[in-house]
Amino acid sequence: MRTSESGEARTPYRLTPEHVYFTFASGRLSYDCASCGSTCCRGHGYAVNSQDALVQLTRRPHLRFFLAERDGLVVQNCAPACFFLANDGRCSLQVEQGYAAKPETCRLFPFIDIRRVGQVLIVAPHGDMCPLEVIGETEASGTSTHAYLLDAMSMQRIERFLPEVAPIAGTAESVIALEREIVAASERYLTLPYSEFVGEQLRLTRKYLQSETMTESWGSDSALRSKRMLAQVLDTIGFAVEELEQADRSVGVLIAALTPFLRSRMMFRRDGAEHSDCTRDIDAVGVIFALLGVFALTSAANLAGMQRVTFQTVARIWKENHELLTLISLLGTPLVWRRGEEVAPAGSYPEFEAAYFEVARALTSSRQQSAPRTLYEIIASQNSWHGAQRMRFLRMLATRLHGRVTSSLDGGPSSASMRKRVLSQFQQLALSSGDDKLLRAVLRSS
User: Fold this and answer.
1) Between the N and C ends of the chain, which has fewer C-beta atoms within 10 Å?
2) Alpha-carbon torsion 141, 145, 149, 154, what sign?
3) pTM confidence score
């Protein structure tokens, strides 16, 4: 048994179908190394296990100068290309010694984002380096079938340390079962309107996580609820249904195929300081809200002139709109300011200050406890702008609320310093006063 640098023990990973969860349908994703110029082989290091290292050092003894220990052995590759990349763009290790001679990272790439929950490995594609394609419903790529990837993983034991994650609701078993069903559903709903797939996600969420995520107020009509959720997302960002319907049909196919991958980024969470507190309050239904946000933004990208949207389009939208998508994920949730958190001033957005103050007041614990309103209802009461101004207001709001609000209507526990707690209390009093001038002065003094 090996250990990571942090001292955590490594145990052998089971590589059987029931112990591996692929976050995409079998054969649905395709890639062509030659057409992208072997981007992943240029200037990026790669993990090696002891057997990989032996093979490579035998062929290139001077590689010993570029081996390092980072949760296992890695080769510190240099620009402009990998030590083994031939001039024709092919891997010389594979050409001369076969596919099994490639290091672990390269054998699995781009499906190298591997985490574990309990005894199950969660396998996802790399976020943005590989120009993956979602192929047509009647086709299948041999390089992304689950059987092919399982064989590639099983050639040699995976030795690198894998981060452990936990589900945001329920048990690991129930969430993995839910996500496997959603992978299967992504194939059935590939060419149907995305709102119908949302309804199916809601139905499956009720089936597996009802006690943790849904109350009786949700009702049993998932189709109706999915339409309401879509309407709330579109209304919030100022995107008419008629506009959305003008986007190319390929957008819906793309988002349906990538839904399991996107869900895996939210349904499983790694504990640690690098993760914002704001994600604590995103539940399984909030995940679906966020997916609708990705669908709307990807449709907008298509309508803005991006005729061909791809996996990389969605990955970039996901990465660069994190705060906005977090805001969208919380639309269906009553929220309050987190206890001890300071309210950020409007800053360089004076035109939005009055509306922002009203949103801030609506999020005080006293108001929400007496008459709770969802974040959508609160924003809708103040979001009177149109076009670019509407998005500027939302992005400002998303930044100001990010990590500062909670679904615990009493404000939840606080780990803030005494100074921050006192400042927060003054701000809450100023908010409750209804006096913008007083609030402005308190925020500036903070």
Assistant:
1) N
2) negative
3) 0.87
Reported as a pLDDT band with limits 50, 70 and 90, residue 416 is low
For 68-122, how does the pLDDT look when each residue is reduced to its tens digit (9 = 90+)? 887 677 888 888 888 888 888 888 888 888 877 888 778 888 998 999 998 899 9
User: d(Cα 227, Cα 248) in Å, to the nearest integer?
Assistant: 20
Dist. CA 83–CA 92, nearest whole Å = 9
**pLDDT in the model for residue 307:** 87
Structure tokens at 43: 């200037």
* Full DSSP string of 178-243: HHHHHHHHHHHTTTS-HHHHHHHHHHHHHHHHHHHH--GGG-S-HHHHHHHHHHHHHHHHT--HHH
Sequence-separated (6 or more) residues with CB below 8 Å from residue 42: 79, 80, 81, 82, 85
Is residue 31 a contact partner of residue 131, using CB atoms and an 8 Å limit? yes
How many other CB atoms are there within 10 angstroms of residue 399's CB atom? 16
The count of residues in the chain is: 446
1-47 pLDDT tens trace: 333 444 444 455 667 889 999 999 999 999 887 777 778 888 788 87
Strand partners, 374: 334
Query: How many angstroms separate the Cα of 151 from the Cα of each of 67, 124, 148?
Result: 27, 16, 5
- Give phi and psi for 352, each to the nearest 5: -105, 0
CA distance linking residue 90 with residue 85, whole number of Å: 6
How many whole angstroms from its chain centre is CA 29?
A: 18
